[in-house]
Amino acid sequence: MAGSFRRARETVGDIDILATATHPQEIVSAFSRMPLVQEVLASGPTKASVIVQDTIQVDLRIVEHRSFGTVLQYFTGSKEHNVKLRQIALSRGYSLSEYSLTRLSDNQDLFFDREEDVYSALGLAYIPPEMREDQGEIEAALQGHLPELLELKDIRGDLHVHSDWSDGRATILEMAQAAAALEYEYIAICDHSPAVGIAGGLSPERLEEKIRAVAAANEQLEGITLLCGAEVDIKSDGRLDYPDSLLSRCDVVVASIHMGGQQSERAITGRLISAIENENVDIIGHPTGRVIGQRDPYDLDLAMVLEAAARTGTALEINSYPARLDLSDVNARAAREAGVKLAINSDAHDASQLLVMKYGINVARRAWLESKDVLNALPLKELLAALKR
Ligand SMILES: [Zn+2]
Ligand SMILES: [Zn+2]
Q: In this structure, which ligand is nearest to the CA of 167?
């Protein structure tokens, strides 16, 4: 895989695949005959372009093994990253092309089958694909200051999932067992509050019952700890949908806006800040409310929200649901730079949705996050110490 797909952009225009082969023509024709393929746009001895799922173009290129690293680097992009890389090459007496690095002093072509070797030939540390957007990564590589990016295996638990107590489809125990199978140490069951009536929000009495049910379920579990949480709605006047006395008895509180997202920038920013300043709120869920292709983010003053979150030690969420990815890569990077911790959560409504965590990791890597920036990369003990209560 190459292109924007490999860079893990939140949306991609087409899909680029590179391969090496001893018999390229056989690979190209097998590719063009795959059941997914609806239309073959073009086909030649070493490449083919096809359409899948009505609109998605997939391009396959077969390249020589000896230049695979150089070609992969080239087709991964971004264009802006590659322009800067070619400038670095020239300043060091090389010309970088799609297939090779040419030493200008004697016109010698150097071929690399590994991408890492392209970067090291230019005196650079390997830059992960997610960072290749010309957003300072080449400068950081030159100075030896590239971050050690977060990986999926660094995640110790999920701090925002639903159960069948509200609009989830799995029981608390089923969610815990699925999380244990992912080798998580903890999972926080955060069902909705009453204002989100269509999602089966729990009355205060039901939440009290759930606190007891989670404690009982913990007795039956080994190797994973259930945390009793709430996804409390931030109402249109900025108040929370449960009393503080109840929120203080939860292990983890996620506060989110679900209604009134059309309010003015001042009103929305004020709502978020009053939730952030509540001593029981640990995480702000899907902070900008955007849904990709459907709903723009709220009008909000992100800098003010980040300042309040940093000041109070409140984490902001990277909601991993593929249509949300909220915070976005750009906003999550701004949060990190403002000293705000991020919580990367699935917001799963059934056990299989726990797996969307990987999309949140993509966002985190594009935001240059390291494990120390992420609340749920902490082991349970340290997590409990880091939460506000
Ligand atoms: Zn929500
Ligand atoms: Zn939720």
A: 2
User: What are the φ and ψ backbone dihedral angles of 360, each rounded to 5 degrees?
Assistant: -65, -35
Of 321, 17, 302, 41, nearest to 160 (Cα)?
A: 321
Distance 172 CA to ligand 1 centre (A): 18
Contact 106, 94 (CB under 8 A): no
Domain encompassing residue 107 = 66-146
**Interval 275-319: pLDDT, tens:** 999 999 999 999 999 999 999 999 999 999 999 999 999 999 999
Q: Which ligand is nearest to the CA of 345?
A: 2
Spacing, Cα 340 to ligand 1 middle (Å): 20
Into how many domains does the chain fold?
2
Q: Is residue 244 assigned to a domain?
A: yes
Dihedral sign, Cα of residue 251, residue 246, residue 192, residue 240:
negative
195 within a domain of the structure (yes/no) = yes
Indicate the pairing of strand 108-110 with strand 157-161.
unpaired
Query: Does residue 134 come out as left (phi exceeding 0), alpha (psi in the -120 to 50 range) or beta?
Result: left
Say if residue 246 is in the same domain as residue 344.
yes
The DSSP string of 196-207 is: -GGGTPPPHHHH
Cβ atoms of 149 and 369 within 8 Å: the answer is yes
Regarding whether 318 and 213 lie in a shared domain, the answer is yes
How many angstroms does the Cα of residue 281 sit away from the middle of ligand 1?
14
Same domain, 131 and 160: no
**163-189 pLDDT, tens digit each:** 999 999 999 999 999 999 999 999 999
Q: What is the pLDDT of residue 328?
A: 98
